[in-house]
Specification:
Blueprint (H helix, E strand, L loop, with lengths): L1 H17 L3 E8 L4 E5 L3 H23 L10 E6 L2 E9 L2 E8 L4 H15 L8 E2 L2 E2 L2
Antiparallel strand pairs: 1-2, 1-5, 3-4, 4-5, 6-7
Organism: Streptomyces candidus
Pfam families: Robl_LC7
Protein name: Putative regulator of Ras-like GTPase activity (Roadblock/LC7/MglB family)
Length: 136
């Protein structure tokens, strides 16, 4: 498991260096636990992962109200003074979150995130948990 996480960290670094305005990248499980991160403070990454669990749930509830939608969240983008936040579905039970500054090319970040998910989406999964333990 440690080797897979190291490989995932390297791939996240590749996304960050490809878009220099990215401050932090977090891969999280649907229940809000950090799987991997690049950049930023680990405590911030943990808080971001927890917040993303609620956000993806809210986004899925909104998506369910859209006619002809399958009800699944694909991407959320939030623009605030100072930057952007992106959250993208990245595999079964896993999500990719990115914090970037306000000078970032918003379209480029979304495209690079999609490319990353396509390339390694099978590795960005988090099996469901039972009694606090991941099931295999």
């Amino acid at each position: 498991m440690i080797q897979q996480r190291a490989n995932l960290d390297w791939i996240l670094k590749d996304l960050a260096t490809g878009v220099p305005q990215i401050h932090q990248i977090v891969v999280l499980s649907a229940d809000g636990l950090r799987i991997a991160r690049h950049g930023g403070d680990p405590d911030v990454a943990d808080r971001l992962a927890a917040a993303c669990a609620g956000l993806q749930s809210l986004a899925s509830a909104v998506a369910a109200e859209i006619p002809d939608s399958d009800g699944r969240m694909r991407m959320v983008v939030i623009e605030v003074d100072g930057g952007f936040f992106y959250l993208m579905a990245a595999g079964a039970g896993a999500y990719l979150a990115v914090l970037a500054d306000e000078t970032v090319d918003a379209g480029m970040v979304g495209a690079r995130m999609r490319d990353l998910v396509v390339r390694i989406g099978a590795h960005l999964t988090s099996p469901p948990r039972q009694d606090g333990q991941r099931t295999v």
